[in-house]
């Protein structure tokens, strides 16, 4: 059974050798050429499908997204299909602002224990609001882009290449329709779709710099995203975990969770399976919080869930947690062990999810190899 | 003597009633229409002056910036001039990433004392690296835009409009030419010019949310910039303050400081005069630090100095410091007193600077009025 049947139909941007960037939809192991389909008047989208990125399509809004998706599903068997192996995939959208949350209770508690052992794992504000920060939009890159190990200040008097290079397995939400002061019920009107995110992190740079204004160079060198944006309506909504204490009114109702099951491979060895469905704060709450102060979200905004970690060690979404800051290395299939990333290491995060109508859909993967 | 003589010539984007946005240069109390000048073949800039924002011009690079500036100065008496009073000024560039530093030792020490009275004012890392964070590019607005008081979580169990709405008087640097891993000596090749910045801040929202990932909603509702971008070459470089301990090699040489003298007016009463020349970290060091990990800066990036505060209370760049968190209110000319901003209050930050050749140049002003 394919994870990319007619119930998934994710959007991406591809090119063939020597050709320009075009919008396509993945079906099985092929890409349907939507630019050609619109040029041939098979789909009417006002030119939105004849663009080098998804931004114009994403700005159209939910009714058009639904209509175009239905039309693509209907036409799929007859649309020009190019084998995936013959195309190059590109960053699917131009990133406006990139915001990263911190919404796994297990992750926040683990990181607190590791980085601030003298204080409680969870900060007092954590269950009252979805903690987040702004990241660097310029360094969001598509899956497959090599990750150059960053250099920086690693501690008092120390400068050099990071020795604690890490990943963060996350789920990202891509905004289509701009807005301010959104309610949680507005999620589906504004969010176009979902990608996988690896928020690469240099833990030593981060630990030295982050007081008092938060992560900066420890995270701004690269953030990788999967090339396929899975439409929000492809997912079967599920019940989110209970929240105690009850959040403020502007964060209610919480909106749905998504049952996305991540899988982290380190040089081909599966080391972790983080469960997104257990995240404490939902994407609807993150979007409502983000815009509650009047801040504008724009077409192309990316907001990420924060590291997805479950209660078990084998569900950790970062190597900081998986190896407990390097103290408990993991063994890979080739017999070597790892605390943090070595040059040449490859990390691939893939995922499947509960799809509408009881199906299982694919989100594809986001991969990257560390170079010196 | 005008502050906008031929030694200043800042760039902006203007429109006349019913007209499109055009690039202009300020000379005295008039705007020289550069779009028309290029259309008339008086200046050759490859179309860069016939754009609705400065971004294409800013991407050309230093040799072209210098050549165009010289040509504008030469032609100025003969160029079509529109009275300032007849134009509307717009955000002069499209903001790519917005980064805010924290480079005044006096400000960092004051804020530390106010917010974290149990610990030393300055964090241990502060003199080793220019601390900074990413802000929200979407909410950078031009001077004159009304500032809606943000609502948010003000503390445990409290939600409502901010009661401690504040300003931060800053100097902003606008990137023209993209780059990574820049040296401090690269500043003038990459930075196009300078604006004034008011980084509006809701201190109660910020204080509750900022641990552990830094400022988020407390600052993301609005950041105002002055409409005129003053070219870097209009400034006379001055010696920056000595740094002890010596910074790491990648932050040396420190590059020049700029002698920019800010002035903060609260409802027309001058309440503060922050001296930019005394900032501990220079813009060249901020740019080198920002890109040292491989992060990309792009055309339209804005990086701001951080609040400019001098050693005296009358040199504070924020009301948090000026009124010591509201405990020592200031008296305005109308006899009323203020701790933080009330609805209807107007703040105007203006500045002059030491210009090349012993002149004094103007940076204009950034203003905003608080509405409920």
UniProtKB/TrEMBL annotation, chains A, B:
Alphabetic keyword roster: Calcium, Hydrolase, Magnesium, Metal-binding, Phenylalanine catabolism, Tyrosine catabolism
Residues reported in the UniProt entry to bind Mg(2+): 219, 223
Residues that hold substrate according to the record: 102, 116, 206, 210, 307
Pathway stated in the Swiss-Prot or TrEMBL entry: Amino-acid degradation; L-phenylalanine degradation; acetoacetate and fumarate from L-phenylalanine: step 6/6
EC number(s) given by UniProt: 3.7.1.2
A GO BP entry: L-tyrosine catabolic process
UniProt-annotated catalytic positions: 107
Protein name: fumarylacetoacetase
Source species: Pseudosporangium ferrugineum
Lineage: Bacteria, Bacillati, Actinomycetota, Actinomycetes, Micromonosporales
């Amino acid at each position: 059974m394919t994870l990319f049947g007619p119930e998934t139909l994710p959007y991406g941007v591809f090119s063939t050798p020597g050709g320009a960037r075009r919008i396509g939809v993945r079906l099985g192991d092929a890409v349907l050429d939507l630019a050609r389909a619109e040029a041939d008047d098979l789909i009417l989208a006002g030119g939105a499908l004849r663009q080098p990125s998804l931004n114009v399509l994403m700005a159209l809004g939910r009714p058009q997204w639904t209509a175009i998706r239905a039309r693509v599903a209907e036409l799929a068997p007859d649309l020009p299909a190019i084998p995936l192996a013959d195309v190059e995939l590109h960053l699917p959208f131009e990133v406006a602002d990139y915001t990263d949350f911190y919404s796994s209770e297990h992750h926040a508690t683990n990181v607190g224990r590791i980085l601030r052992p003298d204080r409680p794992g969870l900060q007092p504000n954590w269950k009252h609001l979805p903690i987040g920060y702004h990241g660097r939009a310029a360094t969001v890159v598509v899956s497959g882009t090599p990750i150059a190990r960053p250099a920086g200040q690693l501690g008092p008097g120390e400068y050099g290449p990071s020795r604690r290079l890490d990943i963060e397995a996350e789920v990202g939400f891509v905004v289509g329709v701009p807005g301010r002061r959104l309610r949680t019920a507005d999620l589906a009107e504004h969010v176009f779709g979902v990608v996988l995110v690896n928020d690469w992190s240099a833990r030593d740079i981060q630990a030295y710099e982050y007081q008092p204004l938060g992560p900066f160079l420890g995270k701004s060198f690269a953030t990788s995203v999967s090339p396929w944006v899975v439409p929000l309506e492809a997912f079967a909504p599920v019940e989110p975990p209970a929240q105690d204490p009850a959040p403020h009114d502007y964060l209610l109702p919480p909106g749905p969770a998504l049952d996305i099951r991540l899988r982290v491979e380190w040089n081909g060895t599966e080391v972790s399976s983080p469960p997104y469905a257990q995240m404490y704060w939902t994407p609807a709450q993150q979007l409502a919080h983000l815009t509650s102060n009047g801040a504008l979200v724009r077409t192309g905004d990316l907001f990420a869930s924060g590291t997805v970690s479950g209660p078990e060690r084998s569900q950790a979404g970062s190597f900081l947690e998986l190896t407990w800051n390097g103290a408990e290395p993991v063994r890979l299939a080739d017999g070597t062990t790892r605390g943090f990333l070595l040059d040449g290491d490859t990390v691939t995060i893939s995922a499947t999810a509960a799809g509408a109508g009881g199906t299982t859909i694919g989100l594809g993967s986001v991969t990257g190899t560390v170079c010196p």
